[in-house]
Amino acid sequence: MDTKDQYLQMFFDESAEYLQQLNENVLLLEEHPEDEEIINAVFRAAHSVKGMSATMGYERLTDLTHRMESILAKVRNKEMTINEFIIDTLFSGLDYIKLLLDDIRNNGEERTDISDYLSKLEKILNNDISIQEVLVKPEKTDLNLQDFTGMIALTEEEKEEIYNKMTSNDRIYNIRVILAEDCLLKNVRGYMILKKAQELGYLAKSNPDQREIEDEDFGDSIYIKLISALKEKQIQEELADIIDVEQVIIHVEDYKVEEKAVVEQQEAKSQVDSIKKQKDGLANIQVSPTVRVDIKKLDTLMNMVGELLINKTRLEGLNIDSDVYQDIIQQLDRVTQDLHHTVMQIRMVPIGGIFNRFPRMVRDLSKELDKKIDLIIEGADTELDRSLIDELGDPLMHIIRNSIDHGIEKPAERERKGKPATGNILLQAYQKGSEIIIEVEDDGAGINTEKVIEKAIEKGIITPDEASQMEERDKLNLIFHPGFSTSEEVTDISGRGVGMDVVRNVVETLDGQVFVESELGVGTRFTISLPLTLAITQALMVVINNEVYAIPLGSISETLLVAPEEIIQVRGQDVILLRESTIPLVEAARQLNLDIEYGKYRQLEEIPVVIINSGERQIGLIVDQMLNQQEIVIKSLGKFLVNIKNISGATIVGDGDVALILDVRNIA
Amino acid sequence: MDYTLRDDLMLEDYERKQIVVFQLADEEYAVDISQSKQIIKVSKITPVPNTPDYVRGVINLRGQIVPVIDLRKRFGITGTVEKERIITIEFDDILIGILVDEIKEVLWYDVEKELESAPDIDSSIRQDYIKGVVKKGKRLIVLIDLEKLLFENRPVSA
Asked: What CATH number should be reported for the domain whose range is B16-151?
């Protein structure tokens, strides 16, 4: 990757994050239009996007965010009040930002035409000429009047901490340092500015912060909140003296130290002195102790752990009779396990990353459909492997869209049914044993299984005869059948020709399962269960027709050796009785359509049977031989061999050969 | 400096391409060298159930699972040979091995003069899997359109 690409990637990553923040905060703003902290947060995020876009030379993005910022500035200065119109305008602005970002990602340049939108913003702004002038034509004199304190607003805690440290001589200076347009090495200049500020007093806050400065992730200005006993003029001169600084604007905050602080003046002063002396003072500015890592590097790391594990298994296979050998094996075992665990931990990210895109979607869709819907999110901090997160977004979106479109009724209809006019969708995630459960539950109309049946017959998925014999649950599951939902009758909302079968496919590729429960008139619940860790699992190795296969232990309930006498025939099906339940026997070779003679097991003295959990049923899978139990590294069969029936992947066994992993969930 | 300039000009004059030539039954076939990654000896191939018969199975190629396609089966050529080789091919990040009888050589050919498009030659394989035929004297080497061959009907079990 060359430097330009690296910066571009960083730009995409960060702008995506800011966009998400903006979406969340504008939603919050709609609920709390008076909350200044939210307005400031929106303002800051918009400003950051503007700064980044300007640095990268994307003019439309810069223009767009600049105008949005102007509107927000008016709101903040109480010259404009938040109403639905403004919120909608802001939201469509966010959509434009996304479109432009997509343009850049896909085509390398901005293509979306935003001129109409810009003139709309202009009209909104035009209601107050003076402000518009200040913002659109940033004359130097006007800049001095412009209020930028929002850029460096403090949280309540920060305020308390700083006010406590102040002496009566100290003043709070809000400083805007404007760099020359043609400034080279902006990050170095920025660093010099912060360093100088620290010499002059206590640097309470800066925007951009130190990391952003290092990354050159800022526009033309650095905003600083400085606590100092020095005179405004001296600070002005010292800062203006730095190379490439074009202008320094200082506003003095009229905060006075309270009585308490005056009494403790002596003490406080010494504190401030010591703070001033702190050499590593820069660390005071929010520097988060994290690194951003390309997910591909983590994948590589994970693969290497896999290789290590395979070799460890091979070493174990040597089985040398020596204490030293045993000791090494034990140590190696411990280290590889810890390593695996740690790598998995690193890959874990909160599921909130995908949950937080839904509030906006629910808002937009419910508005469009004239419905009232509250989306309740729980367990957003539940952690999941990063690779799962990326895949889950679309299935979840589809389920939620379905709930909005088909589940929740219109307010009037809900009231007729005696329900509250506002419908609820509960989206929650939690961990249950070694699985992650994600539920989408609505209190809407529920799924009418009669209608499902009608449609399934009409589509030729089942015959009326079959329908009459189906259990309620199986009827419901028809919605996952490919071809059940087709593009001809889906609405704008819940589909672009994709149905629930796509949801099920995606979830199953992730080694998970999806269930649906529904009660007519009460609501519907979709449950997705996913394995906590993907890459490495415990498996039972078995032999089927001279080939070794792995069956993940998670789907095995027990293993048995069955004598032929124990087999009973029920309606032509071999079954065994196990603790009073009847378990059908299924020959693995037949499931795999292997080209061999079936039924030979009946001649064995002991038949190896693996009892597996297939859905909610138990099935006895007949194999030729059961080998050992071991850790396996799950590998995909690649994009060429996809959706192979009853095979979910492959693993490499000790001798370097490939063993396929049996997917027993659909064995019947 | 003059020299390199002239070389460049010559390259523009007639385009040459490199191919890997292999034997399949009685005919010579080839794939573009830019698509081929490496040639490997056949070790243990693990069969994958519930796939079409031309999917011979999967192999472990330095920790990566790579599917192997039996070209004889894909083209409906009967019979087997002892010393098979696998050429690994890469398209859009997808690595696939194709099983051939024997690797013959790596050849340059002149796109203008030596390549003929979709001729009515007597080949065992379907016309639309053929990109063209490279003529080297009396030799006729069939250039295979691998992308079409492999991805037209992806092996997906019902």
From this structure: 2.40.50.180
